[in-house]
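WARN retry 2 of 3 for item q-0093 after timeout on previous attempt; input resubmitted unchanged.
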Amino acid sequence: MITIKYFGSLKEQVGKTSEHIPFTGVKTVQDVWLTVQPDGLRKGVLMAVNQSYAHVDDAVADGDEVAFFPPVTGG
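OK item q-0093 returned
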C-alpha cells in the first residue's frame, strides 16, 4: 500500500488531501501519479518520498508515502 498526500492547489485539483493505492504495478513516483491522475504530471510539480524530495523516476516501495506539491513561485 502506498500513501499519497496532496498539498496546495493539487489537493483542490484531485478533491482530497490524501489517499491510498495498492503497491501492485507501481515502481516509480511517476507511476504513482499516473495511477491516480492519468492525464500526466504537470510541469513544475514537486514530489517527495518519505519526506525527502524525489524525482519522477525515483523508485517507490510498499509502505512508502509519496507527496505532491504544486510549483513554488516567489518574488
